[in-house]
Amino acid sequence: MTHACPRRLRGRAATATAAGILVIPLLATASFTAGPAAAAPAARTSPAGAAAPFPPPARTGAPPPGQLPSRPASPPPSPYASASPSPSGSASEVRTLTPAVVRQLDRAVRRVQREANVPGVIVGLWTPGQGQYVKSFGVADRSTGRKMSADLYMRIGSETKTFTVTALLRLVDRHRVGLDDPVGKYVDGVPDGGRITLRELAGMRSGLFNYSEDDGFRKAFTSDPRRPFTPRQLLAYAFRHPVLFPPGRKFDYSNTNLILLGLVIEKVSGRSLADCIRANVLGPAGLRHTLFPAGAEFPEPHAQGYTDQTANGRTADTAGWNPSWGWAAGAMISDLDDLRVWARTVATGVLPDGRALVSPATQKQRLTTPPTSVPGAAYGLGIFAVHGWIGHNGSLPGYESLTVYLPAARTTLVVLLNTDTGHQGAEPSTLFGRAVTGIVTPRHVFDLPAQPAAR
Q: Is residue 337 a contact partner of residue 289, using CB atoms and an 8 Å limit?
């Protein structure tokens, strides 16, 4: 969860997201089919440097002439379902997407959109053999009336954490770093740096103050949301505060942890974090529409974002705001189809072609998810488990996202929306997640309460 705001520049993780929180930031235009494919999205411009030497992820429609066929719709089940703190379900617990269920979902999504005043939302739901639901509602741009569509690029906030931690785990598998190494081995000037481990950073148990909760940072960001921030500038806001508790003592979602992990990755790899993620995570996974921007660039087509996290509290357009303040914790951009692939990949550690992205032993450590102070939520290494769903959410000014996977049922849910303005104390992404899962997986309802302390 990444939120920069005068009243809640928050990172919500096990409860919301920082730069996308456990976050760890919409008239129906896409078609539904009960079979393996739906209508193909419109053509778009690929981000420079984002292409990978792997087939593109499965799109929502049949491939155009000359394009590689889409990947199989039925991924292998996760060998780590038991790592979730609650039963992860089975295919029999997922309702088949019959026309009646689809109409029920349509009504539920529209209701949440109306009640929470969400401009536009994209919802994707897939269960092998039981149909798929891919639809967009509302508008991508209020000023022009341009409709939301399933092919749009969106800022994903704290879902960035899943990519950063995966890059770290790849270094663990290569014995370049150890999860129990102290962060001070790689980054100078960290309070308690000789005691805080990389594992505690990834698991949100370091005790370091969250820079996005610092009043000085909030003022700097809201006074000029297009300004760039460096990682060291972000850490300076955090390190002016005392350590909150001894490392490992408890869970506390902090974007500071991910900034440090990004610097560790750069130090060890000798490459920029963006290059490392592109080469070692996005490339192998075939995510050709996911990128780590250098600044405020935003590939077309994308949705306009809307936030009230402003200096005067008025709603503002945010597509051109600079996400560098979220960096390793929340700066990334993606789309529905890539996140569909990523949901299963990050939850299982297995690539779409069956190879391991992360070794089984390391993936098991990622999915060791101790409970948190957030009811119903547990948090592992840059990933959460909520009532059987494994994944992350994201939130930053103007955008929210939710990408989760129910392992035993092999069900994937992705929600993308173009506002981060809360509704009655709840994250909009959680409201949509709750509405959809309450219908399709009633024994595994995604419900991630917002953290009062993060507001």
A: yes
